[in-house]
Design a protein that fits this description.
205 residues; Helicase, Ruva Protein, domain 3; Dna Topoisomerase Vi A Subunit, Chain: A, domain 2; 2 domains; two-stranded antiparallel ribbon; 8 helices; 7 strands; 40% helix; elongated
């Protein structure tokens, strides 16, 4: 792809680094920005810089937040005795959109995947175990995708906390094997939360 401008080429190069964005799509986006008022581009640049410089991780659940404690964890109406374990922030958003879950979350930041070099030490598992050890959590809901990596992560956490007096459950398999939560429709996902099953039952399948 030949560029008449080095500035344009550099902009396309940076945009194409985003996941799912190829060079042609990046060029289309950059040319679109060029047609917009200068203010529109400035607002976008300011929003991205603000995101990068000021976003925080909730000190309780590791969700993305504007403050040290996210809106969910700081909401006194939420049931802090029930914690839903998810892979990342997108899963929190997906479950919240169902309006069916009133507990708290714990964002792991990924799944155990030896192939990708991701072990338990790379995830927020230790802080989850510590949370359970404190005795305030009465139920953990495993809501990771039903892939090999997701099941491995669920089982690893289960073995870490089985000595504690806590109920462990997993979302009902209304979500197809291999599916990611963020792509499930709200009704199916909401029902899978409400109709969750004991985690030990899932080990027999």
């Amino acid at each position: 792809m030949d560029f008449s401008s080095k500035i344009l080429e550099n902009a396309v190069k940076e945009v194409s680094r985003l996941p799912g964005i190829g060079k042609r799509t990046a060029l289309r986006l950059v040319l679109h920005l060029l047609k917009q008022p200068v203010d529109a581009t400035s607002y976008l640049a300011e929003a991205l810089l603000n995101l990068r410089n000021n976003i925080k991780s909730c000190q309780n659940c590791h969700n993305i937040s504007d403050t040290l404690l996210c809106d969910i964890c700081s909401n006194s109406k939420r049931n802090s005795a029930i914690v839903c374990v998810v892979e990342d922030v997108r899963d929190v958003m997906a479950i919240e959109s169902t309006s069916q879950f009133k507990g708290l979350y714990h964002v792991l930041g990924g799944k155990i995947s030896p192939i990708e070099g991701i072990g338990p030490q790379n995830l927020h598992i230790e802080s989850l175990v510590e949370k359970v050890a404190q005795g305030t959590v009465k139920e953990l809901i495993f809501a990771l995708s039903s892939t090999m990596e997701g099941d491995t992560t669920n089982f690893y956490i289960y073995k870490q906390i089985e000595k504690f007096e806590i109920t462990t459950s997993t979302i009902a398999r209304g979500i197809s094997v291999g599916d990611e939560l963020e792509y499930a429709d709200e009704v199916t996902l909401g029902r899978s939360i409400l109709n969750r099953i004991p985690f030990s039952d899932s080990l027999r399948n």
